[in-house]
Amino acid sequence: MGKHKVYIAQKIPKKVEDYIANFCDYEKWEGEGPIPRSELLKKIHDKEGLLLAGISIDEELLNHAPKLKVVSNASVGYNNFDLKAMKARNIIGTNTPGVLDDSVADLIFALMLSTARRITELDRYMKDGKWKLEDNENLFGLDIHHATVGIIGMGRIGEAVAKRAKFGFDMEILYYNRNRKYEIEESLGVKYCDFEELLKQSDFIVLMTPLNNNTYHLIGSKEFDLMKREAIFINASRGQTVNEKALIEALENKKIFGAGLDVYDKEPIEPDNPLLKMSNVVTVPHIGSATEKTRSEMAMLAATNLVKALSGEKAPNVVPE
Ligand code: DGY
Hints:
The protein is 36% helix and 15% strand. By secondary structure, it is an alpha/beta fold. Bound molecules: (2R)-2,3-dihydroxypropanoic acid. Residues 8-319 form the D-isomer specific 2-hydroxyacid dehydrogenase catalytic domain. This is D-glycerate dehydrogenase.
């Protein structure tokens, strides 16, 4: 039997490519930036496996790939999968949980700190030559230490955030999740909390839930109305877990103190998005897992999932149907 034919639509390190080459005949996208969809559709008619990140796996794509058996996402989120359409064709989807938790949790703390202490705003202030000796209250921010953080979505990344909150910053930690996490309650002293109560009580609200039908626009104007006026909202999950219009309105009307954002409704964000003009908003371009080490581990895990699933072995990270 010949090797499995796969297409690699994502840039991956050479060592990961070499690993795939041991088991598969592969073609890969070598152009600049993401592969245009029309190009991808041309490449997949004879492929059994795909390795990619975030590309929409929908009916249209599946119709172009009659031999497809496995789609390996080099990301933990898999909201790009049409799971129903994949299931109907017996196609396995995989993702890369675990290896990115600490990097994403670090980024979340970077967003919390820079929003609360106004780091990007005051960096600009310095560089514009505006610092004066009489500056005082106008440089004040908010404390993180001993504040209350509310984590929505207590998965692996939520737990990594909770560890930093407890051991680094002596924070009070509330969480909301679809099921209780008794072990984490025990080990980290986090407290399970009703969703609305969490919004009311938290100084920092960290949204870490995956995007699905239940979490689409989970946070909207009603939820911002419940938050404290000094609250800081952090989103490093997916842009559509929040109603972005409601977020903009909450920030414009000072319903909350600020926001730290890694993800957006539309990515890349439109240059005229009001969020980019707000001094109380810290924005970064979806870099939660973007360190060389973490992205390389994600690529290797995605390749392992692909190879194992294609060879009929149990792949480590098959996503639930
Ligand atoms: C993921 O893996 O889903 C993250 O969003 C990447 O940063």
